[in-house]
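Before the break, one more example. Copy the sequence into your notebook; we will annotate it together after we see the structure.
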Amino acid sequence: MQNQPGPHQTRSPMGAHFELQATLGGRSQKAVVTEIAASLRALEIDGVALVQDYPAQSAPPSCAGWVLVPWPNRVADGKWTYDGVPQQLEITEPGNGNALHGLLSGAAYRVAHRTPDSITLTADVAAEQGYPFELSTAVCYRLTDNGLLVTHSLANTGSRAAPVAVGAHPFLRLGAVPTEDLTLVINADTHIEVDHRLNPTGATTAVHGTRHDFRAGQLVGAVALDDAWGNVRREPDGSSLHYLEAPDGSQVQLFMDASFGYIQAFTTRVFPGADGPVTAVAVEPMTAPADAFNSGEGLRWLAPGETWDLSWGIRYRQP
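Here is what the structure looks like once it is written out:
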């Protein structure tokens, strides 16, 4: 049985908060998504929090839950070249002098469709400085019997091919278990090397025998990360799976479909919790690494009228 959709839950710097609720597979499910940035603010199964939430009247700390379109991560100096013409994006990471996380982090999304257990939000990308293209975008959040499925749709509404990449910035957790006590598993074979401004140097390193090897897991409390990996280990259908595991064997899993070939992990010790700062870790699906507008790595070019659909999600696995 599913609950009926209620009104917007609250107002905040993130606009309206939309609550999804359902009982699926005998489990009570709940998620909260925001109007601004279509960000994922909360996710629970049977009362177990799987996403690190934050105070409702606050902006998301450390880009928590953002949708990253039309590029995730960074464009170095905000500069790239299109058809021989230099482009200059707005610098949105002043500390490192980069253009960070796309163009929709401040966008007010529109509700296109809503059910008790799902919501589809839409936003447009208009041609602007540094990105002379037009896109229609949508993101659908849908509760499942063991978590959440997130589906992105991008359509080129302009007259010329547009470069696109997609990412998301969820902070994962496992209920009351302190995040520093969780083991992080990243199923990827190569690490992307970066400079002091966190831009790729062009080099990748095989993780075997290095501190960047997370295939067998490392304790979150023992590492400091703002790192990306490629060559994700894929299942037969092309998807990949990465997770946090508690001492009792329970897991919160991030799964990515075949469109996502890269993953980023970011740790912070100052994420605002109910009783003060806590350790938190973002596990971020990406279709392209940082600076893809310059390297072309993982970048997709949408032809006029072309649409791209892709999915990732969060699952809860009990021991």
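The CA atoms of residues 2 and 169 lie 28 Å apart. The longest helix spans residues 292-295. Try to locate both features in your own notes.
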